[in-house]
Write a structure and sequence with these properties.
- The chain is an all-alpha fold.
- The longest helix has 96 residues.
- The chain is built from one helix and no strands.
- The protein starts with a helix and ends with a helix.
- Helix content is 97%, strand content 0%.
């Protein structure tokens, strides 16, 4: 094999290697584009999760306020019932003692 043939063989190998590298770079670029799309999709979904969390937090706060108000109302009604029972007891006692 003479020098020209050796050089031609080396050039052919280099060309093949460049072609392989070009294909690999193209595949990497394609993968990178897909990753960027996935990241964008994740960001959109994450934003939706943040919004839902904010809404749920606001709703939770409203529910807690309502429950506290209901608890206060029940405590007040229980107190008023006790007072009414006591007043009724005293009235019945007076009526019984006046007979």
């Amino acid at each position: 094999m003479n020098n020209e043939e050796k050089i031609l063989q080396i050039l052919t190998q280099l060309a093949n290697t460049v072609n392989e590298l070009t294909i690999k770079v193209s595949n990497i670029e394609s993968s990178q584009n897909q990753i960027q799309l996935d990241v964008s999709d994740i960001k959109t979904k994450l934003s939706a999760v943040y919004n839902q969390t904010a809404d749920l937090t606001e709703y939770h706060t409203e529910v807690i306020k309502t429950l506290v108000q209901i608890q206060n109302d029940v405590e007040f009604l229980t107190h008023k019932e006790t007072q009414t029972e006591k007043t009724l007891f005293n009235l019945e006692r007076k009526v019984s003692s006046t007979r």
